[in-house]
Known about the structure:
By secondary structure, the protein is of the alpha+beta class. Helix content is 36%, strand content 28%. It has an eight-stranded mixed beta sheet with strand order 13-17-18-25-22-21-19-20, with helices on both faces. A five-stranded mixed beta sheet has the order 27-26-28-29-30, with helices on both faces. The longest helix has 22 residues, at 21-42. The site of zinc ion has 5 residues, from loops.
Amino acid sequence: MAQVAVMSPDGSVKKIDRDSKESLQALRKLSALMLKAALKQEFKGIRLGEAVADEDGFHVDSDKDNQQVSADELPALEDIIKGLAKNDAKVEFVEVTLEDALAEVEADPYSSELIKESAKDGKVAMYQLGDVKAIADADILVYGDVVKNLRLLSVAGAYWKGMSSNPMLQRIYGTVFFKKDALEDDLKKRQEAKERDHRVIGNQLDLFFVDPKVGAGLPYWMPKGATIRRTIERYIIDREVADGYKHVYTPVLMNLDAYKTSGHWEHYRDDMFPPMDMGDGEMLELRPMNCPSHIQVFKHHIRSYRDLPLRIAELGMMHRYEKSGALSGLQRVREMTLNDGHTFVALDQIRSEFAKILKLIMSVYKDFDITDYSFRLSLRDPKNTKKYYANDEMWEKSQSMLKAAMDDLNLDYYEAEGEAAFYGPKLDIQTKTALGNDETMSTIQLDFMLPERFGLTYVGNDGQEHMPVMIHRGVVGTMERFIAYLTEIYKGAFPTWLAPEQVHIIPVNEDAHGEYADELAKKFKAANIRVVVDHRNEKMGYKIREAQTQKVPYTLVVGDEEKNNNGVSVRKYGEKEQNEMSQDSFMNEILADIASYSRE
Length: 600
Ligand code: ATP
Ligand code: ZN
């Protein structure tokens, strides 16, 4: 088995199997160092930030006066790296005094800062390749001759240390493998990922935008994206109301005291926006969660066992102070709307309520054609029960009820002991994103703590006061992350019931057929079908192509024949042939299609 030499941050060298994960990481680290060397060679005076190897490849941050490195300069940099590889580049371990290390990078504030941070007892451990050095902070491959299958992928802005108050650097991303076919596979996967990227599709289809100049992580929903969202919101509210939920509206601002009582202020403060001092003693907080709001709804009346399970739901807008470096399209934002719900139950109702929520979630998934998901049941660590909310009876009873409910429904699940929240066990439903990453879409979380903290009670049939258990649950999660996910799994070709534009009508000749097209559109609109007539003065072929690019489910072309026969020529998205049919048959077909998301 082929072996490679790998150096550790302490300077020791060992041989490891070339086909291991560790050797790939070390290859990525070496590639990052070689990219640093290439940047230094190509651009005199360039300032260099971190050179990082991660699970996805490697990247190097840089900052160049006036003009930044651009994507078309990447091939030249790639050639330099390959040249270094041919010339038997070799990494040396050097220990430099802090003064010497700093003197070498005098004009580079980023390198200086990194060096200062990593210095120990006045010394800095570094890897050296020719005349470039990098902090020795991860294993690195020693011999550069294997760096052949490398590609520099892209350049993007990245704040120094991920903080938006810092300068923006240019981050160059790359990928590298020992073998050529591994690189080719990876590039293919990346291409596929790009085609599904909801940010790219969102832009092509004009669904939404996020502009850091008007607010990082604060999305603007354009009319088409808003139509998709509105359709989902109406759908989910209808499903929940049918399932016994009481939908409410509660404010996004709340007195900070509520978050002190809930414990969020103590444990979750880093993710919250700073409170607003109203100047009269009142402190207001933008809510990061809706739980305390729904608790107020519970508390507003005296509750009895007859009210339970009490199901409060809301499309609740919340704000979380996510780091600017973590923000990504609609997937991770700072203002989001959660399909949230809180059910208040008696202890012995947990099993049936849990099953009911689970059935709702699975039925909703079916309607969206989400099939690739799995269950993770998070329980408390039986060996360390002290870590958790102290009430053995509640834990024992509820955990066995959750398992029993899963078994009743014949569902396979992964038991994650020790993964429960402090306040109770939970079930996460994990989906796979188009890019193959795991994502928690829905959760059902039991909570013994908040009812106690807020002093919630109901009157039991024994006339005594009891404490309810609270179940937090999200069915489709936040509108933002859910729609990002759907955009990727559908590749932007939303099923007809969700498509912002369902029918696109193209008159063959505006003068002769424009009016007929409008008449048709009127009928569709009356049936609540979202339709646009393309009256533009463009060639027909162009209009048809554009309707396909916009992924409209049905494109209708109407000319003499259609007009005379009261018919339409229908082209379905993704299909080549065009079918002639009567207005009525088309109407039946599309209405059936819209209603076709199935119900159990
Ligand atoms: P994460 O680990 O992704 O930050 P979380 O565990 O904090 O999420 P919860 O508090 O359980 O998430 O949030 C409830 C829902 O909100 C989940 O469905 C999650 O997918 C979604 N969500 C959380 N943070 C964001 C965000 N910044 N942007 C969009 N959706 C989010
Ligand atoms: Zn909650």
